[in-house]
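Q: Give me a backbone?
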Amino acid sequence: DPLEKARGRPAPTADFNLHENGATSDGPFNTWRWPKHLQKKLGEGKQPVVMPPDTIDLKGKRLDYIFFGAPTDPNGGEWVIKEAEVGMVEPHPTLGCSLSDHFSVEATLSYHPTRIRRDPRLSARLSIQLEPYLLQSLSLSDAEYDSILSTVREYVTREEKQRFNRGMHFAFWFTVLWVCLIGVWWSKHNAVAFILMLFSSFGLVAGVIDGLLSLLFFNTELRALKEFEWEMKNAKGQAFWKSGRASGMEKPM
């Protein structure tokens, strides 16, 4: 990495990336990223393959995080990171492979009723990311909220259109299949019947794929978009209420 080279740091080992850098993906300890000849050595009844901890790890990535938001505590308490580590490192007991292509991130948070004094000896265990925040300091402007909501509505419209078109594509090829079956029934030539069945079969495969996408994928996407839209509307309402411009209005739920 150019940044690490500029700092004069040596290439990290697999053990260092796991325990110090918190790398959860693409490291030598994860069998999902092993070359094929090593993966073939894994399996039930085979000897476990042990990766040396000092293996140079040039591809390890820290892609998994824990997001925690602590609201303002009127009593002055705060959250402290008690322990953090990479988990799910142990391989499957029978197959010998990693449980997932990403290791997990595990952390234990401890709540202190009173604020801990900023002692340098505790700096390694405290995180500014866990500090309480004021909602109004993170609020966006009305124009920014409106821009986000407008973009979300555009995505919702596009997803609904895609869902409808793919559903119609499935219905079209399903109808074509029935027409071809009727044509085969009345056809006197085997070649014509074969072409009709081949044509309808290929079309139906594409139609079924689009039908499944319309039924499963796009519905999930629309639910996520509508949930995000609700969160943005709620955040906009809370920011409006917090700013004091909504005098006489009820606090948004």
Summary: Helices lie at 2-6, 14-19, 36-39, 135-138, 142-186, 190-242. The chain has two domains: 1-133, 142-242. The beta strands are 78-87, 104-112. The longest strand covers residues 78-87.
